[in-house]
Amino acid sequence: MSQIPIDVQLSALPNGPGVYQFYDKDDKILYVGKAKNLKKRVSSYFNKNHEYGKTRVLVKKIKRIKHIVVPTESDALLLENNLIKEYKPRYNVMLKDDKSYPWLCLKNERFPRLFPTRRVIKDGSEYYGPYTSMKTVRTLLDLIKSVYPLRTCNYDLSEEKIKGGKYKVCLEYHLGNCKGPCEGLQSSEEYDRQIADIKEIIKGNFKSSLHYFKGQMKSFAAEMRYEEAQRIKDKIEVLENYQVKSTIVNPKISNVDVFTIVADNAMAYVNFLQLSHGSIIRSHTMEIKKKLDESDEELLQLAIVEIRQRFHSQSKELYLPFPVELDESLIISVPKLGDKKRLLELSERNAKFYRQERFNQIKIIDPDRHTNRIMAQMKKDLRLSEEPRHIECFDNSNIQGTNPVAACVVFKDGKPSKKDYRHFNIKTVSGPDDFASMEEVVFRRYKRLLEEEEPLPQLIIIDGGKGQLSSALKSLDILGLRGKIAIVGIAKRLEEIYFPGDSIPLYLDKKSESLKIIQHLRNEAHRFGITFHRNKRSKSAINSELENIEGVGEKTARDLLKKFKSVKRIKEASFDHLAEVVGTSKAQKIYGSFH
């Protein structure tokens, strides 16, 4: 990776949010940054003259760029903070201090308090966050306190002290911000029910609170206590208008390694996320070349052992996409939902982005290798006997049965070969019969290739389902080509791929490169065919308007259009100008028809 030129590394970066890391020639980390758009932000370092000397020196030292993709900008901000704290890069001056992002703490005590903090202490209290700004925390606290009255004092509200009358209510009680649990005016059961609802609100689940308040509102309204019902309604509106943002870290997930694998026929990519104290501190993707068609389980097992040794990981718990046999002292989890599942999905997304980045780099540095890989993948995906280096795709075009035409587009080595594209006017079929039209054009195309001894394609794609595919097969049977050329049909609705004699279609992954090439062929055939159809229909309409004039035939109409370029100009032409082209007699008829 370090030998890859910077411009190639830049061209392969994704456009989504994430965190980037710059490394020098010795693979030492120089800088960690966040971006809303990774490609634009990182490219900006190399596309302009920088005002500050420090930035110019940094850019000169950059030899390798790594990145981690995340779902949102907020996640990028949090992850940037974690990585800077972990690695302390030389050029990250601003965030090297020990200041961390704020959390919401639900204190482990009787009548729990809820307050913001920047320190996570393991005392049994519950922590939520981190949040990207204290403003977000204050907004959430204001929301909760406007709906639920909570105590703010730090008294020890044990049952004995409350019964002994040790405390007196404060101003917060008289303002209506607290229900006075210090004097026993609020039961611990009622307070705990509030706390349960608050926990759900912080997580973004308002169902319980809304259900409770709506019941209260209806009860007050039925008793004609309308002012109280209105206050409850205001609380419901506050809850419904608030949306909590999720984060990619969870303080309960501590010292865990996350591994996922993404593989194709030649390579596998294993991503590793390392979590410490609820924060992602490392992301690394390993590229593995397959040798003996190894399974994903075998490759992941090998990668886990090697990566953990390389980074000296001491984590005893692993999150994996499927069970793998490892050291018995390790705890293996296969998450199905929640924060753990989201971490697994984040790891998989990074593996996929890394794979795409490598594909893009190979495409620039070694286009032949890129083509060979795609051709080998198509051969495997479509169960072909040879690589489809030459592919042809057919599409019919007609609107309400008029001017039926067909198009054949040709791809060579996965790219359009426009000089080989062909149009067909339907000759033997009357009316809108797609099946018969497909049979005709396939027969004409390959009859001609056989007569001219031109090379035949390895794959034919028919735009349509089983009906069009069967029609094309009839022509191949007549020409004796069935079995010599692979042929499939693609149905538009669900992108189903049909094979001859198989009633069950093949569904390729929507992100599969094989499907993308087939879709490109289909779309190109449709575009090429519809353009020809429109031109033919337009020309037909113009000619018919002129030929409807007595004494004007196809040759006269052609001569007029050649001279005047359009029917509108013919209509506007003077008698003398018309006579110069078609003679006095025809000019009188044409001029008289339009005037």
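That was protein one. Protein two is written in the same sequence-then-structure order:
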Amino acid sequence: MQKSIYQKSLLPLAIGALAFLASCSDSHFEEINKDPNRPGNTTTTTILLSAEKQLIDNIRNENSSLRGTQLFAQYYSQNIYSDQSRYDIPRSYSDTYWSNAYKALNNLNEIIILNSDPAKKDVAAAGVAGTNANQIAIARILKAYAFQGLTDVFGNVPYQSYGNPDPEFQALQQTPENLSPAYASQQKIYQDILNELKAAGDTLIKYKAANTFGNYDVIYKGKNELWAKFANSLRLRIATRIRTKLPAESNAHFEDALAKGVFTSNADNAVFKYQALAPNEAPLFRATVTANRKDFAVSHVLINVLKGELGTVKVQDPRLPVYATKNAAGEYVGQPYGLPVAAAGLLTATDVSLPGAAVNAANYGEVLQEYAEVSFLISEYKNWDQQAYINGVTASLQKWGVAPADITTYVAALPKADKANVLNQKYLSLYTQGDEAWSEIRRTGYPTFLVKSGDVVWRRTANGQTTDYKFQPLFGEGVPLRLYYPPKEQSVNLANYQNAVKAQGNDDITTLLWWNK
């Protein structure tokens, strides 16, 4: 019988992840050299290390990020090949994202299983791993993060909860019958992950002085207090996403999360930092430098906004030299977004601005969530609060290393907080976080300066003749609203796939998700 990706399969832990910190001098890393294919030798610390890397590798990989969400958010633009810029999305991208997400989820669920099994829980809590309850809490947070990513991409998906026995929430249940799990509705998934984050955060607040997983935890080095803040900060994001659908529930979680503690500075940011050495470099570096690819440049939309030529801020943004490089002529020039194939290669990589050195570093720290976003969420919740808006802009500038004097000058030039100005700045701060930027564009419709169907994206004069190139999507009329379900689901889980499509709408990129309807 074919084994489902949802079913426990004793998946070999990612070898790249096991080698990820091999050069570290900490003696605790000796365990990662043990055979990962032998269940008795697999520690929860090693599983966490692998799962974190699997999770971040997946959401920021070349197909789902560089060719997907970073293009949907119009941070980047393609030259030579421009089909994905115009929303011709290969269904294989969905297959890869889906499969790798559930592999990470299975590893996270294995941590919960080992810490819940009476015969194994004492061994699971040995060494630097920490108590069973705290390990389970951190695994629940990362599972909530992964499932939110999945449902924001596809809508209804197979889901698994730790604390809720709902029959629709058993995707990772370890039974032979679970080869083809039902899809849970996005509404139920959102409601449950809010409760999962609340419960996990409450556990970690109770034991906030403790350390769980130690240095095997790349994100927070095992600091319970920071994991609790992350859980509550994620609740702000998720509660905001569903406010128009479930306002009372949204507000209750938002208030509770604020009361219990969210990010208050960049020191709290949830970041997975890669290494400068192969094979553990950051995804963008691997896609561009390692593969020597230069067919993705910073879009003309983002460059023009940062130069103060587009949008509501009329001075140059000090993040410009960080986000992008100058072209061969010493200028910042964005690649026109979404050109037809016949025009896409007319500008070469030396004519336009490529991603900045800090952004494209091998040891870049990929952000799961940061203080700037939290500040913008609070500003929105408080009816576009001015101080929270300033806090968000300042935090973003500080994170990217902008000099204090330049921060003061830029902040002084900001227009007053309102819906457009706050969301425009939030968009600029989410650069490199294409998954979240794409979701916010779908939720809010901002920023309004993004390219739309029929807009002229490049006016080129050659041989005395001027040509206007317009943006024309190949599918749909605007930014994709979701991605296709993986083709494999139609062969291994057809009945549940069909039920999901019937409940949600056609399996294409123009179907609105529940929170977006």
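The two ends are 39 Å apart (CA to CA). Keep this in mind for the problem set.
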